[in-house]
Structures are given as structure tokens and as C-alpha cells.
Design brief:
Layout: E1 7-11, H1 18-32, E2 35-42, H2 50-77, E3 82-88, H3 91-101, E4 106-110, H4 116-122, H5 125-132, E5 136-140
Parallel strand pairs: 1-2, 1-4, 2-3, 4-5
Length: 141
């Protein structure tokens, strides 16, 4: 009995380095024939006034879509189709929920490389995803 990978989810964000996670996803997809979904999660502070929140959220969604379009174009040049999704909320929770709902086999998330006190103070989306996800998670540095 083997482990099959049919669907890979890659967590992407503008602030991080999407290239490394996507490179690994593309490599694994070529080996396994898996499909890839790129996900970006928009986080808007609930303390902002509702009018400001809407405009800010729209701005973030526009930037996220531009980034996802660039990644999709790069994938297509390598013969890989990329589905994409923009979610709202807590990144770790939303990614873990989405992975379970979509029956993803593997989540790939980048690490900013924070360690020691920096990680303890700032927290880590990658670490949270590892703990919350019910599917395997690969953290790429």
C-alpha cells in the first residue's frame, strides 16, 4: 500500500517567497501527476472601520490575484496547470480547513526561517499549519 499524491496545495503570499514552494510543488507534481492549487489568505484587521476595511481588503485581493496570475503563468510555461483561490481570515486555520475540504494530499508552505526568540515572539504560520492540518505538510526553506 503506497502513498499517492493527487492534489498539492501551496500556500502563497506576496510578503513571502512563493518561488521556493512552487518549485517544490511543480517538481512533485511532475513526478506524481498531481494537480496544484495555490492559495493566498487575506488578513484584514477587524479594528479598521468597515469602509476602510472594504477598500483595504479589495486592494489586498487585487495584489493577491496579480501574484497568483504571475505564479500561474510561470507554472503554465513548465506544463503545469495551477488552480488558485483567495481566502479571508486566519492563514493557518483557513489553509488547514481548505486542505481538508478539497481533499488535498499535501500542503506546501514556506518558512521565513525565523527561529529561537523571533519565532516565539512573532509566531509562525508554517508551524500553525503543521499543527492544525489533518494532511501532510511540507515546510520549504
Amino acid at each position: 500500500m503506497g502513498i499517492e499524491t493527487k492534489h498539492i496545495l501551496v500556500a502563497l503570499n506576496e510578503a513571502g517567497e512563493p518561488r521556493k514552494g512552487m518549485e517544490k510543488a511543480i517538481y512533485l507534481a511532475k513526478l506524481s501527476g498531481a494537480k496544484i492549487t495555490g492559495v493566498n489568505v487575506i488578513v484584514v484587521s477587524p479594528t479598521l472601520a468597515s469602509t476602510v476595511t472594504k477598500y483595504y481588503r479589495d486592494y489586498l485581493a487585487e495584489k493577491a490575484q496579480e501574484m497568483l496570475d504571475r505564479v500561474k503563468e510561470s507554472c503554465e510555461k513548465q506544463g503545469i496547470q495551477l488552480a488558485s483561490k483567495i481566502l479571508d481570515g486566519s492563514p493557518a486555520s483557513k489553509i488547514a480547513e481548505f486542505a481538508e475540504e478539497e481533499k488535498v494530499d499535501l500542503v506546501i508552505v514556506g518558512s521565513r526561517g525565523l527561529g529561537g526568540m523571533s519565532e516565539a515572539i512573532l509566531g509562525s504560520v508554517a508551524t500553525s499549519i503543521v499543527h492544525k492540518s489533518k494532511v501532510s505538510v511540507l515546510v520549504v526553506k
